[in-house]
Amino acid sequence: MSEKRHILSIQVDNEPGVLSRIVGLFSGRGYNIDSLNVAATNEPNISRITMVTTADTAIMEQIKKQLHKLINVVTVHDLTESDYVQRELALIKIHVKADNRGELINIVDIFRYKIVDVGPEHVTIEATATEEKLKAFIELVTPMGIKEIVRTGSIALYRGN
Amino acid sequence: MSAKELTGTKILMKVLKEEGVDTIFGYPGGAVIDIYDELARTEFKHILARHEQGAVHAADGFARASGRTGVCFATSGPGATNTVTGIATAYMDSIPMVIITGQVPTQLIGNDAFQEVDIVGITRPCTKHNYLVKDIESLERILREAFFLARSGRPGPVLVDIPKNIQVMKTKVNGPQDINMRTYKPTYKPNVKQLSRVAGLIKKAKRPLIFSGGGVVLSGASEALVQLARSTNTCVTSTLMGLGAFPGTDPLWLGMPGMHGTFRANMAISQCDLMLAIGVRFDDRVTGRTDDFAPNATIVQIDIDPTSIHKNIEVEVPIVGDCKIALEKLNDLLEKEPEPENAPDRSEWNHQVEAWKKTTPLAYDQKETIKPQYVIDTFFKMTKGEAIVTTEVGQNQMWAAQYYHFNRPHQFITSGGLGTMGFGLPAAIGAQMACPDKLVVDVAGDGSIQMNIQEMATAVEHNLPIKIIILNNRYLGMVRQWQDLFYDKCYSATTLDHNPDFVKLADAYGAKGLRATRPEEVEAVLKEGLETPGAVIMEFVVDREENVYPMVPAGKAITDMLLV
Questions:
Q1: Four-CA torsion B333, B334, B335, B336, nearest 10 degrees
Q2: What ipTM, to 2 d.p.?
Q3: Where in chain B are the domains?
């Protein structure tokens, strides 16, 4: 069976140790975690975990069932089964000098990203994008020299209601 | 302060009593000294083990023999870590248990305090759920949830870690109430449409087979299983964990399948056209190579845990629900289901199964040295199959499963999933506490009995008349068997030439010790041992290199059996 990328949206009790139960489940059973994002929701006692994982259909079914089995898990949705919006935020610090700063600013404009910090030898860019678009941008600026990069991992929600 | 406020330790005792607990297994220490102080003023029977692992296995044995929730106390740090093997054992076999551990005071947590360990972190993957109690207000709720979780749905062990300072804080209690956890709603009632489909499949099957497991024992579905098998004239095989749920002396009984299963059970699995898998999880020791497991069958699986379905084996008809409810409903549906016009002729299948029984039964050849199978066989006949049997793990366990025929659930108590050596003796203590009027016998090897031999003191202290059969081959027999068959007889680290004198050891503990070295002594030793009051060790010096057969080498198809 072929492996596919899945975005899981998991609502959990906002309690210490819950993330550890989820991550422990994945490491203990040998499932992949490609990216992981956790934060509180508008309900103070609920947190949302957005996780990207790669698995075949049978493993994916097990992942969902095993997650449901954890006492602190409220809901589990595989967003990739339906229509969803997905974004990722990245901060990218790029090595620039006077001679290529202009070129970088042009690229940032084309992508409609933002420059949030500038120094004599660097520019830091805030990029909010889909995973694919972010990948394209990173490839484009890599030759200039990326000093540091930080990414939130994917976050996503179902489209519509 | 209101008069109705209780300390943490009093709340603990109150909840235990209200949950129906009467027996507690444990071992005191600094972080549970307040709990033990309170315990001294209660009516609970407390069994002081000699090692926390003994305490937790005893609580497990108590749960398996009684069908109730086992309870164990241990202190923080090493006390807590010593319970881990026992917790994992119960987790793998879905045994309801509540483990109460003491923890260092909340202000010291995280400071590497004396006897501090993150037991909640350590036991996360081997408990159904666990809790660190952070404030006195949540203690009562957590304790009640712990018991609810342990015994509901697919049962399992739940650990509650209570810091020392919280044990002495006071708060008001609410008393027993219905537990409602929004994230935990086990499915008990099966889908009736799916069950009617199964009723139709059974009527049309030419070569049906029931394959039952521990879930039948845990849900109390034994009677419904027997009715299903008899009303449909379907033969039954069951996993190690399911032994006893279907009578081992019934004509429809095929024996256990899998790695050391009977020839007929494995052949029936490979040739059946309909498999009713009830309360099983298709462990690798049962399935062998999964591609060759029941290749001709439509598989129906009934289990309360959705993760057990489609995990190792793809099934055509998955049914999530309680085994007892599902089987009772299925029996109703079968009564109503009309006989199909061309009801299939099953005589060929029935003849085939009978033929397999006759051509390749379990067998051994008793000659000049004592055969371990002969000991179990004689023990079975002498006790008329009535004993509660616990086992250690290895060859002793397999021979007990093959040669003692169990006729009722909760009668065979063994570490199936985790395969924990040292389980049998403390489990026998727990089982004897649960069933004071029954004969409880631990079938052991000379290797595994030494893993928790200290519990002899516990048995003698409480006048528990448990009997221990040691099949002594001066080897770690099952590993030696693998070395014999698959590692060119390189017996690396499996020889036990420095065993204690088990008869003297029994004597030293204040128990009775007996030994048989020749076949003609077996009956007399068993008779004397079983009739002697109090704890008895019976040592049988058996054929050193006897192997357990049939055997399916790991990773092979279950029809690839090595026979005697």
A1: 50
A2: 0.91
A3: 6-171, 192-359, 372-541
